[in-house]
Amino acid sequence: MVAFTRGDYVCENESVIISANDVKKYAETSNDFNAIHLDFQSAVEAGFEREIVHGMLVMGIAESRLSVVFPTSFVVSYETKFLHPVLVGELLTISYVVIDEDLDFITIKIEVTIENGKIAIIGVIQFTNVGG
User: Fold this and answer.
1) Name one GO molecular function term (predicted).
2) What residue numbers bound the domain in which 59 lies?
3) CB 58 within 8 A of CB 22
4) Which residue in 43, 62, 76, 94 has the fewest CB atoms around it within 10 Å?
């Protein structure tokens, strides 16, 4: 496992924009066709500015960046809090900070910040080293 200590950034902050096409593909894969994700009018009627991204799509993208850093590790636990909606086409900034580590495990806090500076999603993911 790559050596990190508490407080280290695991990788550079990532900037991501999730498109309507990304959301459509995720809906098809997950079978989650809730109209707030796919239809502008339905999203507005539900109180959003426009369509919102599936929260787990955002976290899946965030976690996939970590698989490059920890290619021989696997996820032991994954917690997520959704604080604010992520809008389709919105610029996201994702940060990854080590919050705990030992010889067998590393725990990373993922924060997804939306364009207005608010934290939209907080995730805590713990990896272990396969055969480590």
Assistant:
1) (3R)-hydroxyacyl-[acyl-carrier-protein] dehydratase activity
2) 14-18+53-129
3) no
4) 76
- In 3D space, the residue among 129, 131, 80, 64 whose CA is nearest the CA of residue 101 turns out to be 129
Contact, 4 vs 107, CB < 8 A? no
Q: Sign (positive/negative) of CA torsion 33, 35, 36, 40?
A: positive
CATH for 104? 3.10.129.10
Instruction: Give the residue ranges of DSSP H helices in 12-128.
Output: 20-30, 35-38, 40-45, 55-69
Residues pairing with 124 in the sheet: 79, 109
> Count of domains in the chain?
1
Identity of residue 111: E
pLDDT at 97 exceeding the cut of 50: yes
Interval 51-67: pLDDT, tens: 999 999 999 999 988 88
82 falls within a domain: yes
Q: Torsions phi, psi of 20, nearest 5?
A: -60, -35
Give the type of residue at 115: E
The answer for residues whose C-beta is within 8 angstroms of residue 28's C-beta and 6 or more apart is none
Report yes or no on 46 lying in a domain.
no
